[in-house]
Amino acid sequence: MEFVIRISQFLLSLSLLIVLHELGHFIPAKLFKTRVEKFYLFFDIKYSLFKKKIGETVYGIGWLPLGGYVKIAGMIDESMDKEQMNQPPQPWEFRSKPAWQRLIIMLGGVTVNFILAYVIYVFIAFIYGDKTTKVESLKDGYWIENKLLQDIGFKTGDKILKVNDLKVVNDYDVRSNIIGAESITIRRNGQEKVITLPEDFLGQFSSAKSRDLFERRIPFMIGAIADTSSNKDVDVKPEDIITTIDGKPLRYFDQLDSLMTGYKNQTLNVELLRGNETITRQLKVDQNGKFGIQAALDYDRFAELGYFDIAIQTYTFGESFGAGGRDFVETLQKYGAQLKAIFNPSTGAYKGVGGFKAIYSIFPSVWSWQAFWALTAFLSIMLGVLNLLPIPALDGGHVMFLLFEMISGRKPSEKFLERAQLVGFVILITLVLFANINDWI
């Protein structure tokens, strides 16, 4: 079921982004009376799942979900239709249009991507508002479980004060500014300390087994009991919170392992918080020192119990335009910083480049419209930025040659454009293969 939910969100988001991106090319092409021969969601190599010709355009759905395309008459693109290009230019062809019209057609896709992301952020702000955790409310600091962070010098209980020179106010400030960070200022046992991150921190993080960073410390809330657990028939329920084990208080889940030392194959008295009532149960410990109980997360409930404070900022419809714009700009800047780090070999960030499996995995295992739209907005920005890269075969490559033509007054030869398109296509395929192979190593 988890796979079905994730793949459904992934395909829905991908389809939406592809169709709207290609509409960004299609609409100005039609406005400038340029013939569009094909409009496809996904690639139709050899055959199509569906196709129908309406007017001069064939609309279809391909079988290979790696993207989509519009085939514009008289344009050197991935179709490499040399036969058409060998014919005399026709007034309805892309190559016959003024350079400024061709530029608008080529920029249409990324323009739609950026507009879509902004609109999504506006409605997220209006419908859901902003929910943040104030770091000052994390009285006992962060949970540091990632061995990479431990090796660098972080410990559970550290309070984060600054990332570089940025004073941290919200938990989001920590996670969103870690890319490109050189140092983090913490407070430990009342004393401030600056921890310097290695230059290739992102590369090490990408290669690490754990992708956890600085996590809020939470109680042990019961989620589910394994069928193989000896406690499966005990009267404990999901959302019960274990507060005491054998008379010893358990405030945070990260204290569990040290507290369970020496209790293998024993039965212990355990106190649990159920709603506002404290109850006592006997739980068996297996040979591995475990209860056989999975933990659950409910941050709103944890906030109610005083583990941290969650601040909720709501917006009127008018205010949401400003809030959405702020989120759009921040996401764009952070993705730009991430891309810059990827192209800097010394950071090792290229090791974290992922393909379709990585994108699929960021969608939650339960359906959440808020998460779906937030991820779709981010992916729309990512698609827009990547398409602007000056690589032939991408929109940015076409824009680069068009700007050259407009500035110099000289149009690159069709032979040159064909060769550039081929080189760009090889580069693009290489990058796609690298990213998707990275998913599995």
From TrEMBL:
> What top-level branch of life does the organism fall under?
Bacteria
Q: What is its main location?
A: membrane
GO terms of molecular function: metallopeptidase activity
The record describes its membrane topology as:
Multi-pass membrane protein
Q: Keywords, A to Z? A: Hydrolase, Membrane, Metal-binding, Metalloprotease, Protease, Transmembrane, Transmembrane helix, Zinc
Cofactors: Zn(2+)
Subcellular location(s) of the protein: Membrane
Question: Record's Pfam families?
Answer: Peptidase_M50
Transmembrane spans? 103-128, 371-404, 416-437
CDD domains registered for this protein in UniProt: S2P-M50_PDZ_RseP-like (cd06163)
Q: Which InterPro entries match?
A: PDZ_sf, Pept_M50_Zn, Peptidase_M50
Q: The Peptidase M50 domain covers which part of the protein? A: 10-431
Q: What is its EC number?
A: 3.4.24.-
Similarity remark: Belongs to the peptidase M50B family.
| NCBIfam families in the record | RIP metalloprotease RseP
Protein name in UniProt: Zinc metalloprotease
The top of its lineage is: Bacteria, Pseudomonadati, Bacteroidota, Flavobacteriia, Flavobacteriales
